[in-house]
Specification:
about 200 residues, alpha+beta, five-stranded antiparallel β-sheet, binds calcium ion
Length: about 200
Amino acid sequence: MNRSHYSNTTTFLDLLFNMLLAFVALFVLSFAMIAVEKKNEKTEDVKAKAEFIITATWPNDLDDDYDLWVSDPDGNIVFYSRREEGLMHLERDDTGMVNDYIMTSEGIVKFHDNVETVSIRGIIPGEYIVNIHAYRKKSGPPIPVTVKIDKINPMSTVVLKTIQVSTQGQETTISRFTINAAGKVQGVTDLPKSLLETAEEGAPR
Ligand SMILES: [Ca+2]
Ligand SMILES: [Ca+2]
């Protein structure tokens, strides 16, 4: 083997080694990128747990029990006695002052706010109806009940509305809104529709 041949072989081996290093580096990098993508997917999963949050609030010092009734495009209705239907979930039925004290490991904790919450975990395209029903109204004068409908991904308030509830048994349609397949809110009206009557009609006899 002459000197130049030896030198050529060394250069070739160097080149080969460098190429191998580059391949290894690319390989490692691609795995790192897959890991990052997976992490992002996980974060998306957490974010996607609720697409819409509906809250109803009324003055904290009242022992009145107002209820959220929500229907989806498949005809499912959630309220205090059907807490989970389709992709909707009644997170909390606030009954005025009755369930304001919560037993925890730290003792009794008072939850002072009058707030009832329904979450919608996924999108079914079509019309949703949100009603407020005055289940128990101990207070005399008309009471303001505020309902907020928030879209989560991305965050925006679809409806923020305060109604006056004057009698026990009063049912008010807060909003009817239509969601398209992409999750976009397209139409919002408040044309009245009773969900108590709808639930009764649909109930097995
Ligand atoms: Ca309630
Ligand atoms: Ca309460």
